[in-house]
Amino acid sequence: MHELVINLHMHTTYSDGRSTHAEIARAAIKAGLDAVIVTDHNVWVGDFEGYYNEEGRQVLLMVGEEVHDQARQPQKNHLLVLGAQRELSHLAWDPQRLLDSVRQAQGLAFLAHPVDPAAPNFGEGDLSWVDWDITGFTGIELWNAMSEFKSLLKSKLHAIYYAFNPRRIARGPFQQTLEKWDQLLTDEQRVVAIGGSDAHAMSAHMGPLHRILFPYEFHFHAINTHILIPEPLIGEAKTDSRIILDALGRGHAFVGYDLPESTNGFLFTAQGFDKKALMGDVIDIREGVTLQIRLPRRTECRLIRNGQPVQKWENRETCMYITGEPGAYRVEVFIDYLGRRRGWIYSNPIYVRKKI
Ligand SMILES: [Zn+2]
Ligand SMILES: [Zn+2]
Hints:
Bound molecules: zinc ion
Shape: globular
Radius of gyration: 20 Å
């Protein structure tokens, strides 16, 4: 298995971001990412897709789209569309039709910032996902860096503090988002979790203070989506994009907060009677399943089944759990950083099923 680090969900000058595609690619190369996925609001600008090179290093820039209905007030229901390779924003008014079209176009659809609290002091509304009667989406954006920042904006003083101390922001996905995900998983839906930065690098003016909030490169060291692929990428943009989207669609991925320390090397697998499974996969029970967790360093980790913690380990690098119970098993890992216990890794589930 080969691990790739991807940062996704970001905006360029084609919508409300500050940088161009080329500038974003440069920042991604500097940060050492394998790929970035740009998702401008209601515009698909596929021409910029491809490998970008600088000083002997390269990054794959992929282009998706963040679609929402601009006529809707407030403008909720943002959908990240990846790999559809066509403009779909004209369907934003009907989320189910939009999802059906993404499917037809062999794309992936992730509900962006499904929980997104308002920041009324700053004129920022609640942009949560509300139309939950939809079907056919690939997954959810479990952890969105900008929603988390918004949730901390209780006053102007808070805004200034966090604008100057961005390393103190991230704590983990919202409890409400985790609960919603667990509820869907318990209902036996397969829902892939990804992490998004929602990078804009907007400039902020607060009295005499002027600051670029969260440059792209900052985001690229923070909430990333790590994917596992069977063979290394080949260096050709179209093929490699498909390989990445395939892994994302299967949930062969975890969300890693790489700022305190790189989450590279995390692994969550299952060994069944005659089959091995990776996070995102389904495995039959037969005579029991052994779940195995490998952590990048000794720390705290817990295993969750259908939303309920089943085992907790402290100060461990490898963990093992044998089960005969069906359910969606996922892993949460925590790390101490800047005086606080913070979410570090959120795996996709392994779906343990009873063989019928
Ligand atoms: Zn959005
Ligand atoms: Zn966005």
